[in-house]
Amino acid sequence: MARLIARAHELGALVVWDLAHSAGAIPVDVTGCDADFAVGCSYKYLNSGPGGPAFIYVAPRLADRVRPALSGWLGHEAPFAFDLDYRPGAGIERMRVGTPPILPLAALDAALDVWEGVDMQDIRAKSIALQEMFIAKVEAACPELTLASPRDAAARGSQVSFRHPQGYAIIQALIAEGVIGDFRAPDILRFGFTPLYLSEADVEKAADILCDIMATGSWDKPEFHRRAAVT
Ligand SMILES: *Cc1c(COP(=O)(O)O)cnc(C)c1O
């Protein structure tokens, strides 16, 4: 990040980072690498639940100059003045578009309590250990799946993807067994590892179930080939 940001700044460009798959999964230091902007969601590795609040980071050096794409009433300098003209609030305040969603924020607040005292370096180390274990087990027991992610753990986030032409049906068969992965066209089986609460036993079980599905061919049932909107 630091290298890309420095290069962008040399060329007079700004960078927006999408941290949806980073926050809560890998250590990210937006101030340390002089990031301009970052956005992300709280419902993946931060565990706020589906539809949980998104977040935005704006470097303090830009916060009073940037104009929000959505000029919401609660980001107005004087929200209760009901002025006819929009005047952005001070600094990051202007990014608050509307009334905060209190129930989802309460869920996020509780989800964040679990992070108290957690060191992101430990989270990263556990994430890599779980991924390495999963890769080793899957490669040993299901050779028909090909690793699609970089083999170098340092080049991965907290996901591992494999390729298989029947990826869609295999993921459906896994979901039916309680192992929730994603399918991404055309042939990617994607697995996310949430290091905060997933154990080695969970990952071992997931790998066993996957390899059992492959060995028995149980993915090849009509219901697993039926395409749904969410993959
Ligand atoms: C999940 C995700 C988001 C979050 O999108 P929402 O509209 O907040 O649900 C953004 N970017 C990427 C790459 C994602 O995976």
Explain how this protein is built.
- The chain is of the alpha+beta class.
- The protein folds into two domains: 2-113, Aspartate Aminotransferase, domain 2 (3-Layer(aba) Sandwich), CATH 3.40.640.10; 120-225, Aspartate Aminotransferase, domain 1, CATH 3.90.1150.
- Helices cover 34% and strands 12% of the residues.
- The strands form two sheets. The chain has a four-stranded antiparallel beta sheet, with helices on one face.
- The longest helix is centred in the middle third of the chain and has 22 residues, at 120-141.
- The mean pLDDT is 96.
- Pyridoxal-5'-phosphate binds at residues 18, 20-21, 41, 54.
Gist of the model:
It is built from 7 helices and 7 strands. It has 231 residues and is of the alpha+beta class.
What proportion of the residues form beta strands (DSSP E)? 5-15%
Q: Count helical runs.
A: 7
Which superfamily, in CATH terms, is the homologous superfamily of the largest domain? Type I PLP-dependent aspartate aminotransferase-like (Major domain)
Rough outline: elongated
